[in-house]
Amino acid sequence: MNSSGGSGENINLYDILIKGKRLTLNERLTSFSNIYKESNDTQHNFYSRQVISSADRQVEVIDPLTNKPKKMLMFGSNNYLGLANHPHVCEMVHKTIDRYGAGIGGPPLLNGYTSLIRKLEERLSFLKHAEDTLLFSSGYSTNLGLISGLVNFNDIVFFDEYSHASFCDGIKLGKVKKSTFHHNNIDELTTLLEEKSKVLRGDTFVGVEGVYSMDGDLAPLDVIVPLCRRNKATLIVDDAHGTGVMGSNGSGTSEYFGKSKEIDINMGTFSKVFAMTGGFISASKPAINYLRFFARSYMFSASLPPVVVAAVLAGLDVIEKEPERRQMLFNNVKYAAESLRRFGFVTEPKAGIITLRVPENMNIREAANHFHHAGIFLNAIEYPAVPVNEQRFRISMMATHTKDDINKLIECVEETWSKFILHPI
């Protein structure tokens, strides 16, 4: 949403949310419905595009403008290594359906704990250099259960301001003490740890992300790990976008920094590199056993279906046996970055995410419309998700992208910047 122009170009959802606290349900629904309709009428709504093909470097979607199928190059998926339709993954899913069926119909503490689940817990524990692992039905419920189940009212959590919404909601659910620090500001985190821990009765936790989803930059774990050790703080690393991608063996961001065995609690999801759904926590055996009974989003959720668990297990096979896929991914990131750098990165690409800062005199919705028409599927991060002057386009690279795909992306970015800003690059 752009900061200039008429109401259609400056829809302020944040104001509506704030005012919504004083509005009735009907008033809130009516207000949002008018905004949603205006967005559709002006052909600026590219959320929830229907994908009607397999998740690959090229997908087919139902064009919301024509209601007809449209082929697009996919630069908006977290399917970083192309595991979504890898032959080995698909084969294992078919075999699992034949043996176990499609679902379970129960929570893990009752009838929902299968031999496949235990096998995956063991494989992930090995990958993350941890004693044990716990599986959740989604990445969101993983963070929700982790924080609300492990931290109590005597403790305090210091966390990066760019932490995922699920982490923040876990803190809200647990009603625990908290304090944010500016993104990757180690000096501020140091001050918080040294000052607050002296008067705190309970435990201290620090929450960061290995790879931050908004911009793709990394938490400096080489500095944060020893800092937490000195201050006796428990470090939680949300490595959703780093697992399977970062490190020489795909263990994650901690391996990238040479700290694989020094992370207290590793959190990850199956919705990124594995292109499935679900999440996990890898930690000490006492911590995992405790969370099995105190993480409410684990206790009271149905277990992951066998087909999902099998797909993740098969994905781990591919990560171990085809390390060249990670190299292909980083080669593609490097190739794209060399040409896109002049358009203005939010941060230098370090993982599978490239973010282009939208110039303040560009209408992000018109630009997003242009990308769509050109057959380039990427994600527009608009206000109020970020401040108006920090809107960006987020590009997710995959190992399966070809140079021709990337060249088409680069050409489209050049066209978009030339057409929709006052001073073309």
Write the layout of secondary structure elements.
Layout: H1 13-20, H2 25-41, E1 50-51, E2 58-62, E3 69-74, H3 87-100, H4 115-127, E4 132-136, H5 139-150, E5 156-160, H6 165-174, E6 177-181, H7 186-196, E7 204-209, H8 221-230, E8 233-238, H9 253-256, E9 265-269, E10 279-283, H10 285-294, H11 296-299, H12 306-321, H13 324-340, E11 353-357, H14 364-373, E12 376-377, E13 379-381, E14 392-396, H15 403-420
Parallel strand pairs: 3-12, 5-6, 5-7, 7-8, 8-9
Antiparallel strand pairs: 1-2, 2-3, 4-10, 9-10, 11-14, 13-14
Helix pairs in contact: 3-12, 4-12, 5-6, 5-10, 13-15, 14-15
Structure at a glance:
The protein is α/β, with parallel strands linked by helices and 425 residues long.
